[in-house]
Design brief:
Strand order of the largest sheet: 1-3-2-4-5-6-7
Mean pLDDT: 93
Strand content: 5-15%
Number of strands: 7
Length: about 270
């Protein structure tokens, strides 16, 4: 899957998923593959990786739309294991791997399966709660999440899910465009990432650099911080310790969209190590 950015986009589409390719290196830069979270898609400015585009001056950025999201095809139930298969294909003969939230779990699974293809691993507030379930804050979050899934009404609409994921926690909901509602529908149907069992041993043993990025959650609505922020911070601290990773904490609660300069600088520095 070498060659120009156009060649990469064509090859990725042949694998059945859409990939936004940003490349100002003429196809010569190292590859960096990105996996997004829920309610979004690869190049989305609201929750996705639009603010990371400046990194294309030295790297070939491949922003995957997970199946059911963005311009990728529908799937009955998206899944971090399926995402990992797609990420491994996009890594080709090797590249940097970046995952946010649900995409962070997908990136963990991919890296654990094929550490030989990974040059570095960056996890932005990954939703990998189960490995850190020994922490009381994480255990409480898992209990809430499992109960919430069990109580989700069968006729719950994507628009209701979008509001429940944002307004119910004190956040402003993004505009319910068709693309956003499709992302909400995919998020409702996918296998929960927070209950994923992840093999951490091959990741801890891997020689490449690892980075956890978290917000400090200052300024977040109180309920959002309690239900999401505190468990994600505890999870990131646990993973950084277990994996031997650096842990960058930036102001706010959406690091790569609210603090893109700090996040992009950290990625540039990490990527110079391999």
């Amino acid at each position: 899957m070498g060659g120009s950015g156009a060649d990469l986009a064509k090859a990725s589409a042949g694998d059945g998923i859409h990939v936004t390719v940003w490349d100002e290196t003429g196809g010569q830069g190292p590859r960096a593959v990105f996996a997004h979270g829920i309610l979004t898609w690869g190049d989305d400015a609201h929750y996705g990786f639009a603010a990371q585009r400046p990194l294309a001056d030295r790297h070939r950025l491949l922003l995957m739309d997970r199946r059911g999201y963005g311009r990728s095809p529908d799937i009955a139930h998206s899944d971090y294991e399926t995402d990992a298969d797609d990420l491994i294909r996009l890594l080709g003969d090797g590249g940097h791997l970046v995952g946010h939230a649900y995409g962070g779990v997908s990136a963990l699974v991919a890296a654990a399966r094929r550490p030989d293809l990974v040059r570095s691993l960056t996890l932005i507030q990954p939703g990998a709660l189960r490995p850190a379930a020994g922490h009381p804050v994480v255990a409480a979050a898992l209990e809430r999440a499992r109960a919430g899934m069990a109580e989700l009404p069968a006729d719950f609409s994507p628009e209701e899910f979008l509001r429940a994921s944002t307004e119910a926690l004190g956040m402003a909901a993004p505009e319910p465009t068709p693309q956003r509602l499709r992302a909400a529908a995919a998020s409702m149907a996918e296998r929960p990432c927070w209950d994923a069992e992840i093999a951490l041993e091959p990741l801890a043993a891997a020689p490449w650099p690892k980075l956890l990025i978290s917000g400090d959650w200052a300024g977040a609505p109180a309920l959002y911080k309690e239900y999401a922020g505190e468990p994600l911070i505890a999870c990131a601290e646990f993973l950084a310790d277990r994996l031997g990773a650096d842990h960058l904490v930036v102001p706010g609660y959406y690091p790569h969209t609210q603090q893109p300069e700090a996040v992009n600088a950290a990625l540039r520095e990490l990527w110079t190590r391999r």
